[in-house]
Give the backbone structure.
Amino acid sequence: MSRINKVFEQPGTTAFIGFTVGGDPDAGSSFRIARALIDGGTDILEIGIPFSDPVADGPTIQRADDRARAAGTTPTTIFALVKKIREYSEVPIVFLTYYNIVYRRGIERFYREAGEAGVDGILIADMPVEESEEVTGIAARHGIDPIFLITRTTDDARIRKIASKARGYLYLVSVLGVTGVREQVPEEALELLRRVRTHTDLPLALGFGISTPDHARTCAAAGADGIIVGSAIVDIIERNLRDPGEMEQQLKNYVSGMKAAAHIPRRQ
C-alpha cells in the first residue's frame, strides 16, 4: 500500500494536506518549513515547483514562486529537498507543477528522478486528462500517483474520465478562479463533493480558499477525505521572513489547529 493510500485508509478522519513552494525563500529555509509542517501534523506534504507562469495560483503563491526562483531554485533543488525530507520523515509527498517543467526536463527523466527522491504523487495543474496518457503510463512505471484537478464546471462524463486515470486522491477545486484565502467554503464546493462522490471511491480533497478552522469543520462534516491549504500557509511564511523561529512555530500551531478542527466524524 502506498504512503498516500495509508493516509486515507482510516475511516472517519479528514487528512490535512499542507502546501508550500519548494525553495521559498531559499533551500535551507524551505526544508525547515517542511519540517515545521510535518511536526505540526501535516498528513500529506504538497510541494510546488516554482514556475514563471503559475496560472492556477493567486498573488500569494506567485510571490513565493518569485522568491524561490530569485534564490536560484530549480527542479534539481526540489529533488534534493525531497531527499532531505525523506531522511526526516515518511510523510507522503506530492508535487504540484506545470507541464512545461516536466516536458523540458524530459517526462521519463522527471518521473524517474521524482520516484528515486521519494515523491508519491504528482499533480500537473495545466495538463488536461485528454492529453495525459503518456504521463500516466510513465507515472505508473515509477510508482507515482497521478493526481488530477476537478472543478465546479467539470461535467459528469469528464469526472468519470478523470477518476479513471487518477490515483491517490482527487483534488476538488472549491472556487472559481485562482488560489487564495476566502471568507467561507461555498455551498457549490460541497455540492461538487457530493457529485464527484457518486462517480468514484477515490479519496476526495477540497482545496483553493480553505484557511480557517471553520472551513476545516465545514469540509469534514460534508464528507471531505482531505483539505488542502496553501495560501494561508504561504501567508505565514511571507509575514515572518525575517523571523524564522517565529515562522516555524506559527506553522506548527496553524497545522495542529486546523487538524483539531477537522478531526470530527465525516459523513459516510
Notes: The first helix runs from residue 3 to 8.
